[in-house]
Design goal:
Blueprint: H1 3-9, H2 13-26, H3 38-45, H4 49-77, H5 82-107, H6 118-128, H7 131-140, H8 145-160
Helix pairs in contact: 2-4, 3-4, 4-5, 4-7, 4-8, 5-6
């Protein structure tokens, strides 16, 4: 397909990258708002913090299988393109906001450690669910996706939950 056809259909590079990121996160052929994603609804319906963490670790593993290369390409494009840098910053800020909401949801179970604020919980989850973290362990250290998922579940449970 000719680049001009793509740009006419989707938009210029930042719009194209936004669409790629949003569809990669959604796992569908179109962007799906966070609250309508299957894993978010499952998390909202889970009763325990460990169940919520387990669902999210599974979801983030599936997302990173699709998204990590696209997300890292966007980050790298941002070093030379101001529009891509702005999109990278916007998506990173949105991820941080979503993690604060997830931290509050976890806090609502009464199972989070008292020594961590919701902002600290959000920052821990935000940093460990990043494409960079995935890339280091899965691509560079050659962990399997299942090993990453299990590690993430265990690490978050130990770091965040009382008595874990």
């Amino acid at each position: 397909m000719a680049p001009d056809t793509i740009y006419t259909t989707v938009g210029r590079k930042p719009a194209l990258l936004r669409e790629l990121v949003e569809t990669a996160i959604s796992g569908t052929d179109q962007a799906v708002p966070a609250e309508q994603r299957e894993y978010v609804m499952q998390i909202n319906g889970a009763d325990t913090a460990l169940a919520k963490i387990t669902i999210y670790a599974q979801a983030i593993t599936a997302i990173q299988l699709r998204m990590a290369p696209v997300f890292l390409a966007l980050r790298d494009a941002g070093t030379a393109d101001a529009d891509c840098a702005a999109l990278w910053s916007e998506i990173a800020a949105r991820r941080a906001t979503n993690m604060r909401a997830f931290a509050a949801d976890l806090r609502g179970t009464g199972e989070l450690g008292e020594d961590l604020s919701d902002d600290q919980v959000a920052d821990i989850i935000w940093s460990m669910n990043s494409a960079e973290y995935w890339d280091l362990l899965v691509r560079e250290r050659r962990w399997s996706a299942e090993q990453f998922r299990d590690w993430l579940t265990d690490a978050w449970a130990r770091l965040l939950l009382q008595g874990a």
